[in-house]
Amino acid sequence: MPVTITTNTEAVETERPLMPAVLNGLKGKCPSCGQGHLFRAYLKSVDTCEVCGEDISHHRADDLPPYLAILIVGHLLVGVMIELDTMFRISPMTYLVIMVPLGIVLPLAILQPIKGMVIGIQWAKRMHGFGKSRDPAAPDGL
């Protein structure tokens, strides 16, 4: 948990460690304690951690996880296609049989860890309401 230093005028919060939060998110664990589950379903995050009580409901991991999944899988599949084309003479039907299932399964396999990573980054950087000293009158994201 972050240490809070209180002065006469305001509370100053220390920075949260980024790498443990990212690794916990990749594992599907709470970015704060690393013990509780981050997801209650495939891509539905829990509202609060069952272990430490951290409020996770206000994260904004909307479009970034699918974008990153498509970016990673697209580059991977294009590299595999180029490598296969230089090493072997493969028919287009073989590409279709190999690449279409990979193009469906791989993004689905990495989407949840990527979303957990994005939530971990947002928690560590106190983005979108993860900062305790956030002004409640401020609009989301500030």
Show the helix and strand layout.
Blueprint (H helix, E strand, L loop, with lengths): L3 E3 L4 E3 L4 H9 L37 H24 L4 H33 L18
Antiparallel strand pairs: 1-2
Helix pairs in contact: 1-3, 2-3
Q: Could you please describe the fold and organization of this structure?
A:
The chain is mainly alpha-helical. It has helices spanning 18-26, 64-87, 92-124; strands at residues 4-6, 11-13. β1 (4-6) and β2 (11-13) form a beta hairpin. α1 (18-26) packs across α3 (92-124). Residues 133-138 have low confidence and may be disordered.
Helix content: 40-55%
Biggest sheet overview = 2 strands, antiparallel
What's the number of helices? Answer: 3
Give helix and strand order, one letter per element, not per position: EEHHH
Strand content: under 5%
Overall pLDDT score:
85
Q: What is the CA-CA span between the terminal residues? A: 22 Å
| Main β-sheet, spatial strand arrangement | 1-2
Given the C-alpha coordinates, what overall shape results? Answer: elongated
The count of strands amounts to: 2
Radius of gyration: 20 Å
Helix-strand category: mainly alpha
Q: Could you list the spans in which at least 5 consecutive residues all have pLDDT below 50?
A: 133-138
Characteristic terms for this protein:
142 residues, mainly alpha, two-stranded antiparallel sheet, 46% helix, 3 helices
